[in-house]
Write a structure and sequence with these properties.
mainly alpha
Length: 309
């Protein structure tokens, strides 16, 4: 078993902290930028900028020669993954942010690990116990509380289309996670190739629709910010944090701080008054996710503790 040196933990947590700062601001950036551009324009330009930035990162990396070893199957997989992310995932996500307050779209999208568990049952035939089901229900109760703004028994959604798109984005992201989890290619090279295909899909979509408008200076600045700190640089920093950490579970757990910081930024930058239902729902969603992952860690530890026969 490869154990990373603990001396790198300081750098790992530094990269993780930087990533959390980036990701804590992007929900507000979505909401503010959508005041100046439409969801499709936001997706097109942010994906284009992210592709260019990732291309520069790949060119400066020793991994740039990896593409020579890729097979047709590798590029075919990238074509599928690029359809899921960035094309479908961000298209649904930005449409959700265009319809919902940022404080609602953010935690609804954060429920994707629960959707991942459900899809793993369906696609990968994984089995879960009663405790896992209980934690799933806790997270879904949080989703309903947020979607109904604190009136779960009414089952009346303030914006059904927005809620549907936010939850739809979690399905797309969970599918992307499942199909990319066993991909052993370099992560940055793979992401760059995904964005190349994603931009190609966006160009085709624009060609068969109304084209793509050129936004003003504020809109372009917002898309550049999102491309950098949501789609490209933040991802590279997060990979570096996981690479350097001696205990990746400790670093990964820091991600649950992000939505709470995001709500603070949304309150002060976007000007939204944070609903109590948002906080309660978010706590339930994260509580369910943490509980589910705790059960999975216990199962893995029990399996590893079993003597070989």
């Amino acid at each position: 078993m490869n154990v990373r040196p603990a001396s790198n933990d300081g750098k790992a947590f530094g990269y993780a902290a930087l990533t959390i700062v980036f990701w804590s601001t992007v929900a507000s950036a979505f909401a503010l930028t959508l005041r100046h551009v439409g969801p499709f324009e936001l997706l097109f330009y942010s994906s284009l900028f992210a592709m260019l930035l990732l291309g520069v990162i790949v060119l400066l990396s020793p991994k740039k020669t990896e593409f020579r070893r890729w097979t047709r199957r590798d590029f075919g997989l990238s074509a599928v993954l690029g359809l899921l992310n960035p094309f479908l995932y961000y298209l649904l996500l930005f449409e959700a942010y265009d319809r919902l307050p940022a404080q609602e779209a953010l935690p609804l999208n954060f429920a994707w690990p629960i959707v991942l568990v459900l899809l793993s049952i369906i696609i990968l035939r994984q089995k879960i116990g009663a405790s896992s089901v209980l934690f799933l229900l806790v997270s879904f109760l949080g989703v309903i509380i947020i979607a109904t703004r604190g009136a779960p028994l009414s089952m009346r959604f303030e914006n059904p289309a927005g809620v549907g798109m936010a939850l739809g984005s979690t399905v797309i992201w969970a599918l992307y996670w499942i199909y990319s989890s066993k991909d052993e290619r370099d992560s940055v090279c793979r992401l760059f190739c995904n964005f190349v295909f994603g931009v190609a899909y966006l160009l085709l979509f624009a060609a068969f629709n109304d084209g793509v408008a050129i936004p003003g200076l504020r809109g372009l600045a917002g898309t550049l910010y999102i491309a950098t700190f949501e789609m490209a640089l933040a991802f590279v920093c997060w990979l570096q944090a996981l690479k350097l950490a001696s205990n990746t579970a400790q670093v990964s757990s820091l991600i649950y701080i992000t939505p709470f910081f995001s709500l603070l930024v949304i309150h002060y930058a976007v000007g939204e008054q944070i609903y109590s239902s948002t906080m309660i729902g978010l706590l339930l969603i994260i509580g369910g996710i943490v509980g589910q992952q705790w059960i999975e860690r216990r199962k893995r530890a029990a399996l590893q503790a079993q003597p070989d026969t």
